[in-house]
Design a protein that fits this description.
The structure is a homododecamer. In chain A, 39% of the residues lie in helices and 18% in strands. By secondary structure, the first copy, chain A, is of the alpha/beta class. The longest helix of chain A is centred in the first third of the chain and has 14 residues. Chains H and J meet through strand 5 and helix 6 of H and strand 5 and helix 6 of J.
Chain lengths: 143, 143, 143, 143, 143, 143, 143, 143, 143, 143, 143, 143
Amino acid sequence: MKVLVINGPNLNLLGKREPGVYGTQTLQSINDKLATQAHQLDVEISFYQSNHEGGLIDKLHEAMDTQDGVILNAGAYTHTSIALRDAIAAIKIPVVEVHLSNVHAREEFRHHSCISPVCAGVICGFGANSYSLALQALVSGNQ
Amino acid sequence: MKVLVINGPNLNLLGKREPGVYGTQTLQSINDKLATQAHQLDVEISFYQSNHEGGLIDKLHEAMDTQDGVILNAGAYTHTSIALRDAIAAIKIPVVEVHLSNVHAREEFRHHSCISPVCAGVICGFGANSYSLALQALVSGNQ
Amino acid sequence: MKVLVINGPNLNLLGKREPGVYGTQTLQSINDKLATQAHQLDVEISFYQSNHEGGLIDKLHEAMDTQDGVILNAGAYTHTSIALRDAIAAIKIPVVEVHLSNVHAREEFRHHSCISPVCAGVICGFGANSYSLALQALVSGNQ
Amino acid sequence: MKVLVINGPNLNLLGKREPGVYGTQTLQSINDKLATQAHQLDVEISFYQSNHEGGLIDKLHEAMDTQDGVILNAGAYTHTSIALRDAIAAIKIPVVEVHLSNVHAREEFRHHSCISPVCAGVICGFGANSYSLALQALVSGNQ
Amino acid sequence: MKVLVINGPNLNLLGKREPGVYGTQTLQSINDKLATQAHQLDVEISFYQSNHEGGLIDKLHEAMDTQDGVILNAGAYTHTSIALRDAIAAIKIPVVEVHLSNVHAREEFRHHSCISPVCAGVICGFGANSYSLALQALVSGNQ
Amino acid sequence: MKVLVINGPNLNLLGKREPGVYGTQTLQSINDKLATQAHQLDVEISFYQSNHEGGLIDKLHEAMDTQDGVILNAGAYTHTSIALRDAIAAIKIPVVEVHLSNVHAREEFRHHSCISPVCAGVICGFGANSYSLALQALVSGNQ
Amino acid sequence: MKVLVINGPNLNLLGKREPGVYGTQTLQSINDKLATQAHQLDVEISFYQSNHEGGLIDKLHEAMDTQDGVILNAGAYTHTSIALRDAIAAIKIPVVEVHLSNVHAREEFRHHSCISPVCAGVICGFGANSYSLALQALVSGNQ
Amino acid sequence: MKVLVINGPNLNLLGKREPGVYGTQTLQSINDKLATQAHQLDVEISFYQSNHEGGLIDKLHEAMDTQDGVILNAGAYTHTSIALRDAIAAIKIPVVEVHLSNVHAREEFRHHSCISPVCAGVICGFGANSYSLALQALVSGNQ
Amino acid sequence: MKVLVINGPNLNLLGKREPGVYGTQTLQSINDKLATQAHQLDVEISFYQSNHEGGLIDKLHEAMDTQDGVILNAGAYTHTSIALRDAIAAIKIPVVEVHLSNVHAREEFRHHSCISPVCAGVICGFGANSYSLALQALVSGNQ
Amino acid sequence: MKVLVINGPNLNLLGKREPGVYGTQTLQSINDKLATQAHQLDVEISFYQSNHEGGLIDKLHEAMDTQDGVILNAGAYTHTSIALRDAIAAIKIPVVEVHLSNVHAREEFRHHSCISPVCAGVICGFGANSYSLALQALVSGNQ
Amino acid sequence: MKVLVINGPNLNLLGKREPGVYGTQTLQSINDKLATQAHQLDVEISFYQSNHEGGLIDKLHEAMDTQDGVILNAGAYTHTSIALRDAIAAIKIPVVEVHLSNVHAREEFRHHSCISPVCAGVICGFGANSYSLALQALVSGNQ
Amino acid sequence: MKVLVINGPNLNLLGKREPGVYGTQTLQSINDKLATQAHQLDVEISFYQSNHEGGLIDKLHEAMDTQDGVILNAGAYTHTSIALRDAIAAIKIPVVEVHLSNVHAREEFRHHSCISPVCAGVICGFGANSYSLALQALVSGNQ
């Protein structure tokens, strides 16, 4: 099984950026832990981060024929990008939407997600653990 | 560790009710699988279902001093009950909100959750697996 | 043919409560007339009233396997209860929504019904006669 | 007792038009059945159909002094015509609003009725039977 | 100077219709009084009433080349007809919008006028006197 | 008969202020013409202008026992002042709302009037002539 | 004089629940103080608390014939329950709405009360003192 | 192939009406050009214009069995007529919605079309050329 | 203890103004009763009324250093004045918002208060008694 | 004459992506057909596709001095990009907005276009033919 | 060059009022610094503060013929006063809107400004420095 | 002190693009003037422009550790980009939002800024001078 983890805008700053909201782990350390977990689950995992909406779309297209599932933290594009939604709907593999923080406990404009309706499921609020649960969800769905 | 699983209105009909949306498993079979998983994780698990908003609130209050976490599928009360929200905010143990279906892919009125802002996190769209992931989330949070 | 008549919150006060809006008949006298009409139509009829949203849901579930149709005046829960809507959608027998008063001629918040979209049909504004027409509708639909 | 049945825009196409929504009966066959029922109830019945908002208003005015009640399926004008509402409020005889389909189970813009607040009552969702119930409602109200 | 007085839907019922709101004068008596006033002001006046939106539009088009001004009580079409608005904007002669009742003291849906922005001015709330003031306004504007 | 003409904020700048919208007459010249017209109609007329919401309210209170009617151009307070509305409702004499420009042909926020529902009537769009028509309306209402 | 004090959902947790918002007194200690005050005012007082909307409605109905007034803190049902509103409107005795906290200084969804329009009056923001003032209000109204 | 061109309210005034918005061609000259183009494409074309909503509906019904496609400029009824929408949905032949002006560059209330969702396609903003493109679209769709 | 009672626009007309809504007592008689009650409670009380928003603000500023609490009936400014809100937030002494009528039982636009969020508490619906309860609330809060 | 065809996000997946909505032709085959048509019309045509909002803007800027017109299918950016709108308004050559599907027959959020008001015209719902009609429109506009 | 600095409601309390939001400088000290800066720029500067909306309007009118520019901090009237907007539009000299705090980082109701559209420009969020920048802006604009 | 000036979409067209709105200066000439001013203030200044949302975010991240402040004209992304907002909130250096035109005097959709709440301050409406004032603001804040 092959899984791609995609992180959107500003997530490259994890650990540096508002640690009260997003925790003190860097994206690298989250990815490292996920890689270990993936190895144990016999999942081939890869990672991508971009601050460009178009970059995320390009990568999702690419995953269409090469991956079995995607874990997507689209950051702020979650709330504004219909283009991302269309990309997820267009590729046939399952995409799990994740968020580090509980977006529903934050500003009003973070409560709406453009992409949830076309994702397989949504996991939010468990910090780095959100990615880990998403990986388990993809593996379970595959069995 | 002790975890209580609370299911709200109409979830007693699982398996009978709109299987296209909610799947064909009964609540009993979901609970049985969860019990097995809990046993493996060394978690003491118990179950409660009610169609009464007040019943769910009473049970949450009771869990306050007896449980370490709650997995809550509040069914339709998710979208209408501020009283449930207040109950969750009042008790100090973590409550994980779960849904079988991807509520964001359904009617507009199911997109808003009164309780998300006061829950520890939200997991939706993975069928019976949503409960299983929630249990893992509670256990991870405890370690 | 078996039909259950369910009345929701405050309808037990009929005759006492705002007679200008709801008329002077008691719920008992409405039920008695309906029983007579049912007898003539060879319908086995029964009655239930509760001020508890959960009670109404429990009763609807129970009707699922024992009744051929339900006449439901959900009172104020008409306007607020998605849980009731889900219960109606879950059981497979036809449910006819009735109201004594013309709810559309009253306050704005009484114009929206959570349950209409999943009911077989709606009858409102004919006083006690609304129940009688609903019974005829269920009988006609059965022929 | 004299009753006029008024059908609004596009109802002349009944049977031809979207049978999945409106059924396969023609307006003529519905009227014929109503005429038979009226005869049994000793009601003098007449029929009018027009696609013109103004035509419906003219006819309602005419009914003012010649009829004891009106059964009105205003079709799409239900949702847009304040002029029709004013006509109903202006004439003193009872007008029963009917719809073949359950309008509340359809598009959002069909949920609002301009005329309900000034009608005697509303019946919707019972197909051709909606007219029949309306006739019974008018007759009952007269006794 | 030539002035046309156009009355829209339900205004033919004046005197009969809800006298509490619209007064007890008939349209004929209002027109007669206006005719007298017009005569004194040396204005050639004519009258038209229709319940048909299209009829009002046809008449406005006709007035384009034959009249110096129009007094228009569009009745309920005031609140819903963009077609009427376009007709008024299309013809070049001044149109004065009048209402018998103070529409702003009535239901919310009567507060919005589709046609006010393209009329020369608006006069409402003075009963039959509204027409008389509109005639004076047109005459003054012409001097 | 005694009539008070009240002008609200910025109307003291008439003639100076945006002549494209409000014309080139000063408030003084409008008042002078009104005084002449009042004299002809045997009306005792007086004038008041203030940029202070409280000043307009004080003056309306004062008019309560000393005037037979008020002509009120409340300027921008028309759109924001509930206090002014309450003052008009509190005094028992008729108040006619006037505007020089057709407020409905201007910005959206000028379409709503807080005071229209409690005024006797509304006249707008006829320039200085709006006041003149209002005076005639008050005199006619008195006969 | 007989007064019933009704407390709604989660108020049984007072003292335990978010003391920053609701203070540190338990419901029992508030009731004890009220009982003392009632005794001084020669009022026969009784108390009821429930987390069930239906339970609150049942109790209000019961009060109809046995009490002279009700002090009601409906908790979160304040913001969502039309059924409670209907119950208050149905019974004829005065009901005073109270809140411990100033609900208007909290989340947006706590600003709207379904029940205020049918209550005799509203008192909020004075902590346990809100109940005490409500008792005085009922006694004053009775004199 | 047979195509009917239907023009709605005020389009009979083309050339006379607001030439800045709608151009200086008359409807006759547009129709003449279309007739020439139709002739070249071997299409039998006919034309209809009415200011009556009901007239447009009647004509659409008539086209149902006699035409292969309709080009419809519904004028202002585009924005308000659900009845027209239902007529288009009811007849089975393709209807192409056209507008002379770019309605999206005009007032807010012209941005919403009631009929677009049931039309085959929409063409707007190309002046008289919009009709010509619509004819080509119908012909292409037929090949 | 020193308390200032501030009354806003139109409250000087109490007794004269819409007695059906506001009762028949004059402001003077309410103040006299309050003065008596204050004397009994050993409170030094003073009174201020103005129809000027700025006047109310000036007075609140003045109270900042001279009073221990304020009872404020801001009349219609309650619903529109953010400036008043800022004044209350700026001075540090407690301000109790009062209303004679139950504002929630009146027009929609009276349901929103700009000042509630920054007041110590709100009391409405008890007529002149609202002031009396507010005085008791301030005294209790001081002990 | 030189025309540039710009396709936005996800349109590179045409043929692969949701063929039920977008058809089975690839973007390449659509472009090939357009190239043939352009050749016949003596138009020099070129093509560009990007999933990057910024890329589309850069290309539009570039077209400013090198092209005579643009055919733009902005995909999902149609509904969210004010930056794209500004780019179209900034360059002076005509831009025709096209869509393969009838966007008005799809989800609510696809009904609003940020760019329509600044485009020369809009064509939607004719599949690949939409581009062809747009090309004809540009050519006609040039003659 | 002559510049008038106008401060609106509650700004007289600067230094005393919520220093966390508005800083600890008094209005006098801000004005003194501005006076020094004006002197260096060869600008004749004067100051006005009032809590009265009408007072601010009167002062703006007065500035019309005596000043070359105005720096206006309208305080809370910024968000509610259309009358102030009209005053600014009426006088011809440039008015720069300033705020001490970043109003967009505060409550929702402070995000809308009634006056921005008619001001020359807006500066907010720089504390006392906002006034200083505004003065520079006016001087630059004059050169 | 080091300051970076970032310009967003379409600002590279300055001078060419709608000079009526944005003036006739090119971005280069604005930057040159700013460079001169910076030199005088002993500020090390650099410039960046991109039409790519992701490019602006990347650049803001880069500035985090290398600059003391940022002047940001985000163009149309101001109104739509939450990702940009998050980037500004994530980096710790002050960002001043600037606009050439007075955005509040333009279309409704330009009145809302996603980024204002996290910027140090906002300056708009002064043309190229907006940048100059922003530079002074950053320098002043640093002293």
